[in-house]
Amino acid sequence: MKTPLLLILAASLCIALSSCVPTAECPLSPPGTSKSDPQLIGDWLDKNDQETYRISAKDGAWMHVDILKAGAKTDSYDFYSTTIGKNTFANVIFTNKDNPALPPTGYTFVRYSLSDAGTLKISSLSPQATAAAVQAGKLKGTVTPGKDPEVFLTDSDKDLAKFMKNADLDKLFTNEMTLAKVK
Q1: How far apart are CA 151 and CA 11, in angstroms?
Q2: Using CA atoms, how far apart are residues 77 and 15, in angstroms rounded to an integer?
Q3: Which position among 84, 101, 154, 162 has the lowest Cβ density within 10 Å, counted as fewest Cβ atoms?
Q4: How far is CA 161 from the centre of its chain?
């Protein structure tokens, strides 16, 4: 089963993630310290899956992505960006889709970059690499073992950001997708 993320840019903006995408209790930074990323606004096409990621601005730093396949909305997420060093991440919030009035159930992170050529590269957290970081004591959290381990991070935003600043992000963030700007 695929669960899109954004990129996130996440996010998520967005991305198609596996159902076992690592989640966190806290974002990488509070939304009040972030700014909206206007370069993300518009439609982005994943030519492989023929999905369109429609990204729009919301209030403050918050942005929204609708994931469309054959013109029908398949999923949607809210997110905001955090920059750590030279890297930008989408903090994608998970809400209870059955009852949106309930508090959020956590965040996941999508690493993204924009090119001058009009492409958006996004990658999602690797369940295996994130689980290994928890098991090595580099991150606080819980791991439910399996081929794609379920990981829930319990570190503070400051500790998560510190980890991201020092981690090998090319190993931590995998499943890279390249989206092309449509409009």
Answers
A1: 19
A2: 10
A3: 101
A4: 14
Note down the domain range covering 106: 2-181
Residues 6+ apart with CB under 8 A from 45: 51, 52, 53, 179, 180, 182
Question: How far apart (Å, rounded) are the C-alpha atoms in residues 179 and 147?
Answer: 28
Mean pLDDT of 174-182: 93
- What pLDDT does residue 71 have? 74
Nearest CA to 180 among 37, 74, 36, 42?
Answer: 42
Beta bridge mates, 170: none
Q: How many CB atoms lie within 10 A of CB 21?
A: 27
Give CA–CA dist 81/23, Å, rounded. Answer: 16
Task: Encode burial over 108-145: b for 16+ CB neighbours within 10 A, e otherwise.
Answer: bbbbbebeeeeebebbbbbbbbbbbbbeeeebbbebee
Which amino acid, residue 14?
C
CA atoms within 13 Å, Cβ hemisphere of 106: 15
Domain count, the chain: 1
Residue with tokens 């990488």: 28
H-helix or E-strand spanning residue 73: strand 72-84
Evaluate whether 89 touches 9 at the Cβ level (below 8 Å): yes
